[in-house]
Amino acid sequence: xxxxxxxxxxxxxxxxxxxxxxxxxxxxxxxxxxxxxxxxxxxxxxxxxxxxxxxxxxxxxxxxxxxxxxxxxxxxxxxxxxxxxxxxxxxxxxxxxxxxxxxxxxxxxxxxxxxxxxxxxxxxxxxxxxxxxxxxxxxxxxxxxxxxxxxxxxxxxxxxxxxxxxxxxxxxxxxxxxxxxxxxxxxxxxxxxxxxxxxxxxxxxxxxxxxxxxxxxxxxxxxxxxxxxxxxxxxxxxxxxxxxxxxxxxxxxxxxxxxxxxxxxxxxxxxxxxxxxxxxxxxxxxxxxxxxxxxxxxxxxxxxxxxxxxxxxxxxxxxxxxxxxxxxxxxxxxxxxxxxxxxxxxxxxxxxxxxxxxxxxxxxxxxxxxxxxxxxxxxxxxxxxxxxxxxxxxxxxxxxxxxxxxxxxxxxxxxxxxxxxxxxxx
Length: 426
Known about the structure:
Elements: H1 8-13, E1 20-29, E2 47-56, E3 59-65, H2 66-72, E4 77-80, E5 86-89, E6 91-93, H3 105-112, H4 117-122, H5 127-136, H6 139-155, E7 158-164, H7 171-187, E8 191-199, H8 210-228, E9 233-236, H9 245-257, E10 261-266, H10 273-279, E11 284-287, H11 293-301, E12 305-308, H12 310-316, H13 323-329, E13 333-335, H14 349-360, H15 364-370, H16 373-378, E14 395-398, H17 404-408, E15 417-420, E16 423-424
Helix pairs in contact: 6-7, 7-8, 8-9, 11-13, 14-15
C-alpha cells in the first residue's frame, strides 16, 4: 500500500491542539525500558494487549490499555482502529547513501558474474562512476530523486533516516549534495539526519594526495557546512581503497573539535579501524563485517554503537557482521540498510533486519531494538524509537495479531498504517 506524504509545514499546521487516543491495538510493542547495550531476550519486550496511545502536540503523553485511557481522559478525541493490528515505533535507518544520481546496474551484473571490483573500477565503474553522474546532476534533481526514495522508505515504516553526502568529492559538489539533502528534509515528512561523507574516498583530482584532500575538507568545506547548518555529523571511510587510519585520525580529531559528531565506516574488509572509532568516542562504528574478537571487545567496553549493514553483505555476497558476538560481548547494536547505488541497492530495512536475525540468531527484541530504540541512540535522537510518554508519536501498525508474524514474514508483511508526529499519513 502506498501512502502519499505531506510536507513538514502541513504537519505543523495540522498538529493537534488537544489530546487524542489512538487504539485499540491488538498488541502494542512499546520498546521501552530496554538496556542500550548487550543481548536482549523476548521476555524483556513489553507487549500491551488492547493498548493505546494518548497523543498531544505530536508527543505521546500516556501509554496503556485502551479502555483505561478512555476512562481516564474522557475529553480526548478517539481515533478507533479495527483489529487485527500490531503497533510499534517507526523504524529508524541510521546509515544510508540515498542521495545520488545515475545507476550502477552494469556494475552489479558484472560483479555477480565474477568480475573483480578493481577491474570494474578500472573500466570506469565503481564509486567514481556515481561521483561523475552526481556531479553533473542539479541540486533540484538530487532533491527530487531523494524525495522519491524517502517516499518508499516511509511506505515501509521508516520515519527517520540518516543520509550521507560523499558522491561529490569537491567542496562545491558536496555542498550541493548536502543542500539537496536538506531540501528533501523540508519537502518530505521523513526526518532526515544529514551526514558529511566528503571523505568517502580520494577524488581523482587528489590521487596520491589524500592528506591534502582532507585538509581541503577541514578548512573549506566543514566551516561552510556549519555556517549553513547543513550537517552536524562527519564520516570517513577507513579502508585500503579509501583513507588510512593515520590519515583519518587527525581529520576526525579536528572535525570533533569543531563540534561535529563522528560516525565512521570501519572494519568493512580489514579489521582494526573500529578501535580508532572507540578511541575517538565516535557515536557509531559502521560496517564491522571484518571485526574480530579484539574489535568486538573494544566496542563492548566503549560507548560507541555498532551499526551493522546486512544490505551490503547481501549486495556483495559477503559474510554478515558478527551481530550475535557483538551483542553477547555487551555492545550496543543498531541495524541499517547502507542503501546506496553500488553495494546495497535494495534499501529495505525490515527485510534486511529479518534476514540478518535469522542468520545471526537474534531474538525478535534484539532485531526490533536495532531498528528502533538503539537506532535512535546511534543518531543521538533520544526523542524517538520507543512508544512512551514524552517521545515523538512516530509509529506504525501491521495487519496481524501477533508481533512475531512481522519477522516471520521476512519483510513481506508491511505496515498498513503509519503515523508521523501523531498524524496518520494518508
